[in-house]
């Protein structure tokens, strides 16, 4: 297997290079935003830049990056564009800039939307240029750029400006490009189209000739483009050298075709044009496909195009076609061919009279049609309307190979898509893992196209939707698997032994050499399948390793995935491994196969089952695991061995590799998606079209749902009637009771419900009445019935005063339909979610709600707030492994709930026993739930009914208040309640108290009736299943758990009516979709009534580690973000209560009118200044330290020593002033910097009691969803902006701080970035040197914004700050020491208790100890990194953090064995691989 060539990384230009560039000089003269006096527009500048900078460098990305970053498009190109100045260079420059924006993943169309006038003219010129002759004005490379631009246009149909232009190219009139017979055939198939066609012809006749000619050109554009492509394709020779421009043009063209076929609005008309052009036949017969190296990617793209052209969908209706319908279409094609053969071609009689199954394979079709002449084949094809009719006495111009392939490929039997999927192995093999076109390396630059599906706005069918997600999820997992294999195998150092075998010179924690491997079972296939139902094997390894690693191997659980690897190294013993060279040839890797653990075998060879019983202790080091192999893969490998004589893969394995459990659930998720595709997955009708991206995006909004609910009980949502009125601005609120004393919550509100269909109204006054009525809300206060005399009977109440937008979100969530809530930072997303859950629980007690979040942390936050509301905890259930972190003694997991039910049952039966005793009833009524039920029925109910008959209102006589208490039968039982139970003030009040007491008793027996099942079900598993399916009303899980356990949940008969998703913008598209289908449909319909998604698409998207999947395939787009793009209505929360108003301004420009809650201005903590610091936020410029800015010891592992030291120095300064260390968090944008800062903290102050450690040192991406009072942020980069250019990351970084934000960065780099301007213009308005007030202690009384009374000191650079902090610390130590000395010399009378002196002596000892270890913890300026050549945190024994290891070979061993100080090659706690350089989302940029 040839090793793939290592792709080169694109190195971004440095600031100094940018400043030295010709482009930058021009920018400063003509368009740079910070230049006040700009030169006038000059078209020659554009010509010069295009010729000298872009064409001359052959469209080098570096040059185009520079231009785009300098705001060339926004401030010069489009601003000055008009038909008069339009030229080739102008067009091409704009296209290059737009393509670069798409490559960088930044918004591209904003500037065009602001100035749309000339776009139609510009677009028409692009079309003309795309069809120009390749040897004319536009080169093939330039036309490839144009193709890419057109592809971006077709993929941006949500932009009105683009859509209006694209629709002129693709619509019914484009069928003008079809041959006449084919057009007739198509119009005959769909009669309504003929009507439209005649209408189009009439309209065309009315047009003036010029406009008609223009319209005809646009309609024929794609047909002509296909013909042009075919001519380029035919010019590719079979073996002579070919220019890569031609190959890239062909690849980009096929990519464009795939994208047009994969969108229903374009496919509807284009698929027929594509079929009529026979593009696929031309491509498959082309020389490019036969060129193994150059044509590899082209062939893969072609397979994708073939898949989409034959996709199982009706192009006109958009309905998915079933297996039977596809078979019918195939049979119709064959039989029409047979009829034609029978009627007109006597030489095909045998074919015409055969049955379909005999003639629809490729072999038989070639056998029948191969002997025919070219002319006959042409006549057959023209009879089927595939080719124009052949004129008499003329020979065909097509060659025979083409004609034969045309007929055969059209009529051969196709394997169904679902069948293909079921036969596909789920584990990747070495062929896929190292194929750069399918799984690109981390160095994907975005230049070329790839053979990958894309996730855009729309999908053809649910099958298409699931399939694209399936493929991408599989490949993203493959990328991570590749990293793990490369890491583990290279650590094992496989070398060739003297005798030709394999010897391992190293070791790896996650991999072991295989001692023995045998296949022990190959089960028979199921009927109708050709692969075994099950294949099992035994793998023996020798665990001669440390105990904790041995425990990890022995702890492999059922369903854990491992990989079996074959290596045949060719390098002799002792050869060094070079990570920069191709991996496969160095280690001699031959095969990779996946397997799934069934269990470890005991001494007798039996599988040790997982369970509560302790595992047996096995002797010796040898361990054998039974594993399941993939049956599909096994069948393919065996077929290959038997048919082609290949070696048996399963006799060669010599390494087994395991993976971290958290990253290893890909197989279960893939199986879930595959199972979904094999079932009739029923999505609710009201959601189906929206999920595919079609129809009216607001159709699922509650206002358009047919089953909208008029009256809702808002329970404890409102705090008062004034709060309610303020929550519905513009509405007329009518309260059913006049007395203000009775207008207290809870309230029921009746809304005016409009029927979904609008009716035409004739009279204006009726309309006025209607609008008046539509604005009137009828509010009815109601009293919650008394629940009993005990204090704990009082319901818990909401205390939050929701804003009117939050109330709208809560109202929408209570109504049926789809609710989307956009929650900017600090706007109370979780509070809204919890209130919706509580209100649904009280309004619809019989319904069940499923809560899904992205992370366990978010789920736990949600659960803690739910527990504080009036929800009975027996109805709460938490699935998955995160419940351990819940900050409560209560256990909400399945078994925790079972234990709760059993314990609660005993408690309640004790209460029944007490009640029985108080009533003087003999017997054992409290023995079981069943006996308690009888006791309630015969003893309790009878007494209550008798009591009611005595005290109820008897007609004319006034009821006596004392009777209520006198006849009450349960006085003795309630003796332990607060006395007196009855107040004796009024009959109604006492009667309500009596009924409350009875409700308390009744609830005991209701709960016991519910718990009765746990007496009948004996095993914990059965009880937990019963809880899940019947008892729990609110079930919470993470999206990953839902994807893993779908099969089990459906099998149990799990049911739910509502879904609420938190952090919805952080969940992968497919992981958002799966929770919709965790239940079987009822009578063919989904019972789902509500889907509430709460998220923020302006913050960071789901984590995708591979750049290609993230950028090219758009895999990072969540379903939430896609719905927002499609135009689904959202409720945007608009008041934040987290941060100071000044800090909120740094990110509120990204949201629709985001304001502040009143307390942000009023509370003292927000109005008081940050002690010791002049500003509440500041951007601090950090120049190179010792001539170094950013460094990159490993790929994407960026570090900046100067910034790291500066950040830590500021942290220490704040702590010395008195700030609590846990109120400060240090964030950075890269993993490398995180490790570096942690090391510096460990070295400088980690163990110092006077300073301590910050609350967290982590990356911005990891800190999403969290907050702290003070944030110190390091932006690291000094050469290129890097991934902070993604505005979503900027928003997260700016919105984590409540009271203070201090950013350390290279200002000259970031202030020029167009996307970051709104935030950085505010930051750079303040001084760029740190302003501190050292004499102002924490906390201060100074108001924010006030001039301080103490002296302000300006810190110019990091060494100055480090020296300052050192001196400040030493001064503090000395004064403390001096104070204690003085205190000890005081006479005893001045000290109140002798004990205090003793305490102070002890303190003194610790202070003196602190002094002695001080040199270690806070090195003096003479030994800090500020004045030393080498950084202070470097040690003798470990490689340096900043410069990568001087001995790369030592890295794996070091990080396997010893925790090193250096972050670049260390931090086993973080990860145990150098691959960690790219292991988290924020690093892979």
The total strand number stands at 30
Mean pLDDT: 85
What is the rounded distance between the termini? 30 Å
Q: Output the strand order for the largest sheet.
A: 15-16-14-17-18-13-19
Strand % is 5-15%
Outline: globular
Class of secondary structure makeup:
alpha/beta
- Helix content range of the residues, please? 40-55%
Low-confidence stretches: 1-7, 756-769, 1389-1485
Question: Rg from C-alpha positions?
Answer: 37 Å
SS field, number of helical segments: 59
Biggest sheet, in brief?
A: 7 strands, parallel
Mind explaining what this structure looks like?
This protein is α/β, with parallel strands linked by helices and 1485 residues long. Helix 36 (804-814) crosses helix 37 (829-843). It starts with 14 loop residues before the first helix and ends in a 28-residue tail after the last helix. Mean pLDDT is 85; it is low at 1-7, 756-769 and 1389-1485.
Attribute tags:
6-stranded antiparallel beta barrel, 7-stranded parallel beta sheet, 1485 residues, 30 strands, alpha/beta
How would you summarize the topology of this molecule?
Blueprint: H1 15-20, H2 22-30, H3 43-55, H4 61-69, H5 72-77, H6 88-104, H7 110-114, H8 119-130, H9 140-154, H10 160-166, H11 180-189, H12 191-206, H13 209-219, H14 221-234, H15 244-261, H16 264-277, H17 279-284, H18 287-290, H19 296-309, H20 323-344, H21 349-353, H22 356-359, H23 362-369, H24 374-383, H25 400-411, H26 417-422, H27 430-433, H28 462-492, E1 494-496, E2 502-504, E3 511-522, E4 535-542, H29 547-554, E5 561-567, H30 583-587, E6 589-600, E7 622-629, H31 631-644, E8 655-658, H32 666-678, H33 685-692, E9 711-713, H34 721-727, E10 732-735, E11 747-750, H35 764-774, E12 776-781, H36 804-814, E13 817-822, H37 829-843, E14 849-853, H38 856-867, E15 876-878, H39 894-919, H40 929-951, H41 961-966, H42 987-1016, H43 1020-1031, E16 1034-1038, H44 1039-1052, E17 1058-1061, H45 1069-1073, E18 1090-1095, H46 1107-1111, H47 1119-1126, E19 1131-1132, E20 1135-1136, H48 1141-1144, E21 1155-1156, H49 1158-1162, H50 1164-1167, E22 1177-1181, E23 1191-1194, E24 1197-1199, H51 1201-1217, E25 1224-1228, H52 1231-1244, E26 1256-1259, E27 1268-1274, H53 1287-1294, ...
Parallel strand pairs: 10-12, 13-18, 13-19, 14-16, 14-17, 15-16, 17-18, 20-21, 22-28, 25-26, 25-27, 27-28
Antiparallel strand pairs: 1-2, 3-4, 3-8, 4-7, 5-6, 5-8, 6-7, 9-11, 11-12, 23-24, 29-30
Helix pairs in contact: 3-6, 4-6, 6-9, 9-15, 14-16, 15-19, 23-25, 24-25, 28-32, 32-44, 36-37, 37-38, 39-42, 39-43, 40-42, 51-52, 51-56, 56-57
């Amino acid at each position: 297997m040839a090793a793939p060539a290592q792709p080169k990384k694109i190195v971004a230009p440095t600031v100094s290079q940018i400043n030295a560039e010709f482009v930058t000089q021009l920018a400063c003269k003509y368009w740079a935003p910070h230049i006040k006096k700009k030169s006038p527009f000059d078209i020659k500048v554009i010509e010069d830049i295009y010729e000298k900078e872009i064409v001359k460098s052959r469209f080098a990305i570096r040059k185009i990056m520079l231009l785009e970053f300098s705001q060339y498009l926004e401030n010069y190109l489009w601003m000055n564009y008009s038909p008069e100045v339009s030229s080739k260079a102008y067009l091409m420059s704009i296209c290059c800039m737009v393509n670069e924006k798409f490559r960088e993943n930044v918004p591209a169309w904003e500037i065009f939307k602001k100035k749309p006038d000339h776009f139609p003219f510009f677009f028409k010129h692009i079309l003309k240029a795309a069809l120009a002759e390749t040897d004319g004005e536009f080169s093939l490379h330039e036309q490839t750029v144009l193709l890419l631009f057109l592809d971006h246009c077709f993929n941006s149909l949500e932009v009105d400006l683009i859509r209006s232009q694209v629709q002129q190219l693709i619509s019914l009139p484009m069928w003008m490009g079809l041959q006449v017979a084919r057009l007739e055939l198509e119009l005959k198939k769909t009669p309504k189209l003929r009507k439209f066609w005649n209408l189009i012809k009439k309209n065309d006749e009315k047009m003036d000739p010029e406009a008609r000619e223009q319209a005809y050109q646009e309609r024929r554009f794609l047909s002509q483009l296909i013909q042009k492509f075919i001519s380029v394709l035919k010019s590719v020779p079979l073996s002579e050298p070919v220019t890569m421009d031609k190959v890239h043009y062909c690849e980009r063209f096929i990519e464009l075709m795939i994208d047009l076929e994969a969108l229903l609005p374009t496919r509807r008309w284009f698929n027929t044009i594509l079929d009529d052009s026979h593009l696929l036949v031309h491509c498959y017969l082309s020389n490019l496909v036969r060129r193994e190296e150059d044509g590899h990617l082209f062939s893969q793209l072609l397979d994708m195009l073939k898949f989409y052209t034959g996709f199982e969908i009706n192009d006109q209706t958009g309905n998915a076609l079933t297996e039977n319908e596809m078979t019918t279409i195939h049979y119709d094609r064959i039989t029409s061919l047979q009829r034609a053969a029978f009627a007109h071609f006597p030489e095909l009689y045998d074919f015409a009279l055969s049955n379909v199954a005999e003639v629809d394979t490729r072999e038989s079709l070639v056998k029948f049609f191969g002997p025919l002449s070219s002319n006959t084949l042409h006549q057959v094809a023209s009879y089927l309307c595939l080719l124009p009719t052949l004129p008499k006495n003329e020979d065909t111009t097509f060659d025979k190979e083409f004609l034969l392939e045309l007929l055969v490929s059209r009529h051969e039997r196709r394997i169904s898509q679902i069948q293909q999927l079921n036969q596909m192995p789920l584990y990747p093999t070495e062929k896929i893992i190292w194929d750069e076109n399918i799984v690109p390396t981390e160095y994907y630059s975005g230049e070329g196209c790839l053979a990958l599906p894309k996730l855009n706005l729309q999908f053809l069918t649910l099958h298409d939707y699931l399939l694209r997600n399936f493929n991408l999820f599989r490949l993203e997992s493959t990328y991570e698997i590749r990293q793990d294999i490369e890491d583990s195998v290279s650590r094992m150092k496989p070398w060739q032994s003297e005798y030709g075998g394999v010897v391992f010179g190293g070791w790896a924690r996650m991999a072991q050499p295989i001692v023995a491997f045998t296949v022990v079972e190959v089960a028979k296939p199921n009927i109708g399948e050709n692969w075994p139902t099950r294949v099992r094997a035994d793998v023996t390894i020798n665990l001669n390793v440390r105990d904790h690693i041995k425990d990890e191997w022995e702890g492999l659980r059922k369903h854990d995935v491992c990989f079996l690897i074959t290596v045949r190294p060719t390098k002799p013993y002792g050869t060094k491994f070079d990570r920069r060279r191709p991996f496969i040839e160095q280690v001699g890797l031959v095969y990779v196969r996946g397997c799934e653990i069934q269990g470890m075998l005991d001494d007798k060879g039996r599988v040790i089952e997982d369970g509560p019983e302790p595992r047996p202790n096995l002797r010796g080091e040898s361990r054998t695991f039974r594993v399941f192999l993939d049956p599909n893969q096994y069948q393919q490998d065996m077929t290959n061995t038997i048919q082609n004589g290949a070696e048996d893969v399963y006799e060669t394995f010599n390494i087994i590799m395991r993976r971290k459990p958290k990253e290893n659930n890909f197989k279960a998720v893939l199986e879930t998606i595959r199972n979904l595709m094999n079932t009739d997955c029923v999505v609710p009708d009201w959601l189906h079209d929206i999920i595919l991206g079609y129809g009216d995006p607001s159709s699922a909004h509650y206002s358009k749902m047919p089953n909208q609910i008029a009256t809702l009980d808002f329970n404890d949502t409102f705090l008062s009637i004034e709060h309610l009125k303020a929550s519905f601005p513009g509405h007329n609120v009518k309260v059913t009771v006049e007395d203000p004393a009775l207008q207290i919550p809870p309230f029921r509100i009746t809304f005016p419900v409009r029927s979904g269909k609008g009716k035409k109204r004739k009279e204006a006054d009726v309309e006025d009445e209607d609008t008046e009525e539509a604005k009137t809300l009828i509010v009815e206060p109601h009293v919650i019935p008394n629940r009993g005399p005990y204090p704990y009977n009082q319901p818990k109440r909401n205390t939050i005063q929701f804003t009117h937008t939050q109330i709208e979100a809560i109202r929408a969530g209570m109504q049926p339909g789809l609710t989307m809530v956009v929650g900017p930072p600090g706007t109370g997303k979780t509070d809204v979610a919890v209130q919706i859950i509580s209100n649904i629980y009280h309004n619809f007690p019989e319904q069940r709600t499923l809560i899904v979040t992205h992370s366990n942390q978010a789920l736990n936050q949600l659960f803690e707030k739910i527990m504080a509301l009036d929800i009975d905890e027996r109805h709460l259930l938490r699935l998955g492994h995160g419940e351990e972190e819940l900050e409560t003694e209560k256990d909400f997991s399945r078994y925790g709930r079972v234990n709760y039910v059993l314990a609660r049952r005993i408690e309640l039966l004790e209460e029944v026993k007490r009640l029985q005793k108080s009533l003087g009833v003999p017997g054992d009524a409290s023995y079981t739930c069943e006996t308690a039920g009888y006791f309630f029925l015969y003893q309790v109910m009878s007494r209550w009914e008798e009591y009611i008959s005595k005290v109820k209102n008897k007609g004319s006589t006034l009821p006596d208040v004392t009777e209520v208490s006198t006849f009450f039968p349960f006085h003795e039982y309630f003796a332990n309640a607060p006395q007196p139970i009855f107040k004796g003030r009024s009959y109604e009040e006492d009667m309500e108290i009596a009924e409350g007491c009875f409700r308390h008793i009744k609830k005991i027996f209701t709960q016991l009736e519910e718990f009765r099942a746990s007496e009948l079900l004996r095993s914990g598993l059965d009880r937990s299943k019963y809880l899940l399916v019947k008892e729990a009303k609110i079930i919470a899980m993470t999206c990953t758990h839902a994807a893993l356990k779908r099969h089990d949940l459906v099998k149990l008969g799990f049911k739910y009516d509502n879904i609420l998703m938190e952090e919805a913008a952080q969940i992968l598209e497919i992981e958002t979709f799966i929770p919709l289908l965790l239940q079987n449909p009822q009578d063919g319909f989904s019972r789902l009534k509500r889907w509430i998604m709460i998220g923020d698409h302006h913050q960071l998207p789901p984590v995708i580690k591979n750049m290609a999947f993230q950028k090219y395939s758009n895999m990072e787009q969540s379903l939430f973000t896609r719905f927002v793009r499609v135009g689904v209505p959202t409720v945007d929360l608009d008041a934040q209560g987290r941060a100071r108003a000044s800090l909120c301004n740094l990110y509120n420009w990204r949201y629709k009118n985001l304001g502040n809650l009143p307390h942000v201005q009023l509370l003292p903590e927000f109005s008081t200044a940050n002690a010791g610091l002049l500003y509440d936020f500041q951007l601090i410029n950090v120049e190179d330290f010792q001539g170094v800015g950013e460094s990159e010891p490993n790929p994407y592992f960026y570090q900046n020593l100067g910034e790291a030291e500066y950040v830590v120095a500021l942290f220490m300064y704040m702590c010395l002033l008195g700030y609590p260390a846990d109120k400060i968090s240090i964030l950075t944008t890269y993993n490398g910097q995180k490790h570096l800062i942690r090391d510096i903290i460990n070295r400088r102050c980690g163990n110092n009691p006077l300073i301590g450690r910050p609350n967290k040192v982590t990356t911005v991406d990891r800190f999403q969803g969290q907050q702290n009072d003070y944030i110190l942020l390091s932006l690291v980069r000094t050469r290129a902006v890097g991934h902070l250019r993604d505005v979503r990351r900027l928003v997260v970084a700016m919105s984590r701080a409540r009271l203070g934000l201090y950013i350390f960065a290279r200002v000259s780099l970031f202030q020029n970035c167009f996307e970051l301007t709104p935030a950085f213009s505010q930051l750079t308005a303040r001084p760029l040197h740190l302003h501190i007030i050292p004499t102002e202690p924490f906390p201060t009384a100074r108001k924010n914004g006030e001039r301080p009374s103490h002296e302000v000191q300006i810190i110019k650079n990091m060494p100055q700050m480090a020296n300052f902090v050192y001196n400040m610390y030493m001064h503090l130590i000395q004064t403390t020491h001096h104070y204690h000395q003085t205190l000890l010399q005081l006479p005893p009378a001045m000290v109140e208790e002798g004990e205090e002196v003793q305490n102070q002596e002890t303190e003194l000892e610790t202070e003196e100890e602190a002094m002695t270890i001080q040199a270690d913890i806070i090195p003096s300026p003479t030994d800090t990194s500020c004045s030393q050549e080498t950084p202070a945190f470097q040690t003798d024994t470990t490689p340096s953090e900043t410069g990568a290891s001087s001995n790369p070979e030592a890295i794996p061993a070091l990080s396997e064995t010893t925790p090193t100080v250096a972050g670049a090659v260390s931090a086993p706690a973080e990860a145990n691989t150098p691959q960690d350089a790219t292991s988290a989302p924020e690093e892979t940029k």
